[in-house]
Design a protein that fits this description.
By secondary structure, the chain is an alpha+beta fold. Helix content is 38%, strand content 25%. The strands form 3 sheets. A 6-stranded antiparallel beta sheet has the order 1-2-9-4-7-10, with helices on one face. Strands 3-8-6-5 form a 4-stranded mixed beta sheet, with no helix packed on it. The protein has a two-stranded antiparallel sheet with strand order 11-12. A hairpin with a 2-residue loop joins strand 5 and strand 6. The longest helix has 23 residues. It starts with a strand and ends with a strand.
């Protein structure tokens, strides 16, 4: 298997898109299975000659020579998603910041969210352009073409109020959602609607996932310092260690200790996968 994460180069585009990863699986490799976990980012995946089957939180992608272009999105998932890859596969996945994709779409993000995984063709030329991108072999050309394409679709929106509330939800001292609504001069109901419309999740779930993801990023730094789980608990804004353990079991189905034994992190914790035995 070949995997590489490439950060967005264009300064303007980087405000919305963290980057993309390329993953390739050849025929000689055995079936690939891994788990992905809750994130506030939005992932758009494209495949060359592949079919997709889903059942609950199981996702099976099979390389099929005669299959058409495949594109889908991973909107909010709260339980682990099991991905199984079979056959020859060529994937590119775009990793958007939590509000990032809103600045490219004609409608609010909620409009496109029917379920966690479904075919996603947001523009009339998306399939044609991305099919050509998947034919490219040079990573520099892939980056240039995809960044040029996304910039051509950019329609910046004024989401400053929501951005401000997101910052508060991610900060210490702002545990009360009503307080955040009061500070913004809006009702709690309006705050919830904004989150559901543009992030497809409630404010409380956004905050819970942020803490979980912050823990994954902090883990890398704390491991270098040789610090323990207690340090990780408070670095990641959990109330106590039992709170951290409870959330980890909710999102991963396993304890923090077991998760970190199995976790494989890419790009300083931006991407975290577990490859089961």
């Amino acid at each position: 298997m070949y995997f590489k994460f490439i950060k967005t180069k264009d300064t303007l585009l980087s405000r919305y898109l963290d980057g993309f990863y390329i993953m390739k699986k050849s025929a000689v490799h055995e079936d690939l299975k891994y788990l992905v976990f809750a994130s506030n980012r939005i992932i758009l995946s494209i495949f060359k000659n592949a079919t997709l089957e889903t059942e609950g939180h199981q996702l099976n992608i099979c390389g099929t020579p005669d299959a058409p272009f495949l594109a889908f999105q991973v909107f909010p998932v709260q339980k682990p998603l099991t991905c199984t890859y079979k056959g020859v596969l060529n994937e590119i996945s775009f990793c958007f910041k939590p509000l990032g994709l809103n600045h490219f779409l004609e409608r609010d993000l909620k409009y496109y969210f029917n379920k966690a995984l479904h075919p996603f063709l947001p523009f009339s030329d998306y399939g044609e352009v991305m099919s050509r991108v998947l034919e490219e072999t040079e990573e520099k050309a892939i980056q240039e073409q995809t960044e040029r394409y996304w910039l051509s679709k950019l329609k910046p929106r004024n989401l400053s109020l929501l951005e401000m509330m997101m910052v508060q939800l991610q900060s210490e001292g702002f545990d009360n959602i009503q307080q955040i609504a009061d500070n913004a001069g809006i009702s709690r109901q309006h705050l919830v609607r904004l989150f559901e419309t543009h992030l497809c999740r409630t404010p409380s779930m956004f905050r819970k996932i942020h803490r979980f993801r912050k823990t994954l990023a902090n883990r890398i730094d704390l491991m270098k310092k040789g610090e323990n789980l207690t340090s990780l608990t408070y670095e990641s804004l959990f109330y106590d260690q039992s709170h951290l353990i409870k959330d980890f079991k909710s999102f991963t189905g396993m304890s923090p200790k077991k998760f970190f034994e199995l976790n494989r992190a890419f790009d300083n914790g931006l991407i975290n996968w577990v490859f089961p035995d």
